[in-house]
Design a protein that fits this description.
8 strands, mainly beta, 0% helix, eight-stranded antiparallel β-sheet
Length: 99
């Protein structure tokens, strides 16, 4: 099943936490109003990652997509969809401090 470890407010995920799915997906970062909000890191079971800004439960703003072999590419997302890359493939340099 799904598992959440972190801060709560009024019976909703709020603040910093880790949400894990049974299939190996994992989100570590900030929550607001029971949704991913702020800065966070989402990891897929195969090792790929998105690290960056979230809004209303979706990637939204600046972020970095990291392949399973560790190559980071920076980009811009809106409502969960990548709009454009802002660095060359494998040359992402963004750094996020969220936990």
């Amino acid at each position: 099943g799904r598992k959440y470890e972190g801060q709560w407010k009024a019976n909703k995920k709020e603040g910093k936490g880790i949400f894990s799915w049974a299939d190996g997906r994992n989100y570590r970062g900030q929550f607001a109003g029971d949704k991913k909000e702020g800065i966070g890191e989402f990891t897929w079971p195969d090792g790929r990652k998105y690290i960056g800004e979230w809004k209303n439960g979706m990637q939204d703003g600046e972020g970095s997509y990291i392949t399973a072999d560790g190559k980071a590419t920076d980009g811009e997302w809106k409502q969960g969809k990548r709009i454009r890359w802002t660095s060359e493939e494998g040359e992402g340099v963004k750094s996020y401090n969220f936990c």
